[in-house]
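Sequence, C-alpha cells reproduced for reference:
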Amino acid sequence: MTQAAAPITDHLMTVRQVAAYLNVNERTVLKLVAEGALPGVKIGNQWRFRKAMLDTWLDDQMLGVTPPQPEVNPAKPVPRRLLTLDSCFQPTHIIPELRATTKTGVIEELAALAMSLKLVRDKTWFVGALIERENVMPSATGNGIAFLHTLQRHPEQVFKPFMVLGRSRGGVDFDALDGGLTHLFFVLGLKFHELHLPWLAKLPQMCARPETLRTLMTAPTREAIFAALSRAERNLSLPP
C-alpha cells in the first residue's frame, strides 16, 4: 500500500511534502536545494522547509529575483544581460563592522549607505520596502547570511542595480531559519522585474563554501572583503 504524503502545514515541511506541493519528484527537490536554489535547512541528514519561504521563492522566480528552474517552470528562459559583480558592487559598498545590533537597525544602516552612495532616491522608502519583505519572509537563509531585497521593483527609486554588504562579527538576531545569529547582510537593489543581474543567483553558492565564509568574517578591511567575494565569483563553476 502506497504511503500517503503528510498534509502540508505552516510548520517545517519534508522533502516529500515539498515535492507534492511543487508537483515535482523528490529527486528534483533534493537537486534544487543542494544547488542552493531552493530555501531549506539540513537538520541532521534530513532537509526541512518552511511553506512561507517556498511561496516567496516562487514569487521571486516570477519577479526574476531567482532564475526559473526548468523542472518547476517549463517556460523557455529569456536572454539576460550578464553583469559581473564589480559592475554593481565596490569596496565602498561595504560596512566592515555594523554598529547596529537589531534587525531594523541593520536595515536602516545599510539603507543609509545606499543613500549616501546615491544608489537609491529615498532612504525611507528603501527601509520600508526591505522591512515589508522581511515581514513576508525573513531573508536570513542560515549559516550566518541574509540576502535582503524588496518585494516589488521600483525603477524610479533605484538609480541602478547594486549590492551593499554589512558585516557584524558579533551577529544579529535576524529570524534565521536555523535559529542562529546572522553576520553577513547582502542588500540587493533590483531595478527591473526581469533579472538583469545573473550573479545574484550565484551569491548563495559563492557563500556556501566554508573557506569563503571564513575569509569574509576575518578579512580586516572592506578591500579584503571585496577581494574575497571577487575570488569566490571567479572560482564558482558556471553552467555551460
Notes: Residues 1-9, 66-82, 193-197 have pLDDT under 50 and may be disordered. Helices lie at 15-22, 26-34, 51-63, 103-116, 123-136, 203-207, 210-218, 222-235. The beta strands are 12-13, 41-43, 46-50, 94-95, 140-142, 145-148, 162-172, 182-189.
